[in-house]
Design brief:
The chain has about 425 residues and is an alpha+beta fold. It contains 3 helices and 25 strands. The strands form 7 sheets. The protein has a 4-stranded antiparallel beta sheet with strand order 1-3-6-5, with no helix packed on it. A 4-stranded mixed beta sheet has the order 2-8-7-4, with no helix packed on it. A hairpin with an 8-residue loop joins strand 15 and strand 16. The protein is elongated and about 175 Å long.
């Protein structure tokens, strides 16, 4: 019974205390302090007042990674320790060196202005008591010249004929630069590391240029190809210009532009008074002067030779080039004579100019074979006599030099009398 009374009295006391406390609250005698969340510290000197400036255009796309690029500072009105977190944007940024009032921001992935000009980031501040505070900002990226020019349409190869007209564009060079700012530049051409004298460049700007031929080409002189170096340099300032280079291979094709060339000159034929008609005296031989396509060659006597007195006795076979006797010789033709033979290319392309060349054929005509022997004997005697005379002259010159030398020796070595 006594225990029941004690419990009832304890319950009654508690009710009295609660009633008194509520009454004191309502009367303002007791004041409860509310707990406030943390916030970023204002940046000194900002007007209007700013609490962070990481959202300004302050980060270049070539910003170094894994270094501190910014420091977040915050405070809690109740002095609670603040925890810093990244809710969004953690693929590019991370927090390092955190304390209760600040945390450093580090860039962990390279920025690229051409891919994204800004990144959205959400910071979170928590004091462990109140609901965490999220802050959304946009980090802006600035452009720098970090992309080299890119050639469009590689590889560069072109085939032109050797008669390609000079000062005419033969190949278009196009370049692009992925940098948004200062993305124009110049295009130049080099051959063997020096300015080319065969080819030039017309730069139209906006990364467009034409390669042109400056001097005439000749396949027979140079049948290979030209390897030209193309250099593109942009106008970048920050951090500076960037260049790129490639090559243009210019192959040259042969065209039918060379006359026939003669093989085995000089051509000399011998005939006698009794040489049979139809006998071949000498054979001329010509070939197409062009390297790649050799057209058939046909042979003719020139009009001058054909219409002369010799044209009655001699002719040339059209396809073989054999110069032969057409009529029996007469004594009046005894001696040396010249014929002119014309070589003509047989080209299927009727639009091209007919290419020809001529050569001289020396015809020696003797009355009979003894004339040849006589001429040969006279020639031999003349040769021997010339050699003998030359030897005599050389002997006398050597003798005179010897005698003169002995006189000079005696004069220089003469002993004076004692």
């Amino acid at each position: 019974m006594s225990q029941i009374m004690a419990k009832n009295m304890l319950r009654t006391e508690r009710m009295i205390l609660i009633t008194c406390f509520v009454g004191m609250l309502m009367s303002g005698v007791v004041e409860v302090q509310a707990n406030s969340p943390p916030s970023f510290d204002p940046i000194p000197g900002t007007n209007p007042q700013s609490y962070y400036d990481m959202d300004k255009e302050r980060f270049k796309e070539n910003q170094e990674t894994n270094v501190v690029i910014y420091t977040l500072r915050a405070s809690d009105p109740d002095g609670n320790c603040i925890t810093f977190k990244i809710i969004a944007g953690d693929e590019f940024f991370e927090l390092v060196n955190p304390t209760c009032t600040q945390a450093d921001v580090s860039l962990i992935q390279n920025l690229d202005y051409e891919t994204a000009t800004s990144h959205d980031v959400t910071w979170q501040l928590s004091d462990g008591v109140n609901t965490p505070v999220d802050t959304d900002i946009t980090v802006y990226v600035t452009d720098v010249n970090d992309n080299e020019p890119t050639f469009i349409g590689l590889p560069y190869v072109v085939l032109i004929p050797e008669d390609y007209p000079i000062h005419t564009p033969l190949y278009r060079i196009s370049v692009e630069d992925n940098d948004v700012t200062n993305n124009d530049g110049t295009i130049t051409l080099y051959e063997n590391n020096v300015t080319s004298i065969t080819f030039g460049m017309i730069d139209y700007g906006n990364w467009s240029a034409d390669v042109v031929l400056l001097n005439e080409l000749d396949y027979e002189t140079f049948s290979g190809y030209f390897l030209l170096e193309i250099v593109a340099v942009d106008n970048g300032v920050d951090p500076g210009p960037i260049s790129a280079n490639t090559t243009l291979a210019v192959y040259v094709s042969d065209v039918q532009d060379e006359p026939p060339s003669w093989i085995g000159e000089p051509y000399v034929g011998t005939a006698y008074n009794g040489t049979e008609v139809g006998t071949t005296l000498v054979t001329v031989n010509a070939r197409d002067g062009d390297e790649t396509k050799h057209n058939e060659i046909q042979y003719f006597l020139t009009n001058e030779s054909a219409n002369s007195d010799l044209g009655v006795f001699f002719d040339v076979k059209q396809f073989s080039g054999e110069v032969y006797l057409t009529t029996a010789l007469v004594s009046e033709l005894h001696g040396h004579h010249n014929l002119t033979v014309l070589a003509v290319e047989n080209d299927d392309n009727q639009d091209l100019e007919i290419r020809t060349s001529s050569t001289l054929v020396y015809i020696r005509i003797y009355m009979d074979s003894q004339d040849t022997e006589t001429v040969e004997n006279v020639t031999a005697v003349t040769w021997v006599a010339s050699v003998a005379i030359f030897c005599i002259i050389v002997f006398f010159v050597i003798a005179l030099c010897y005698i003169e030398g002995r006189h000079d020796f005696k004069r220089n070595n003469k002993v004076a009398p004692i």
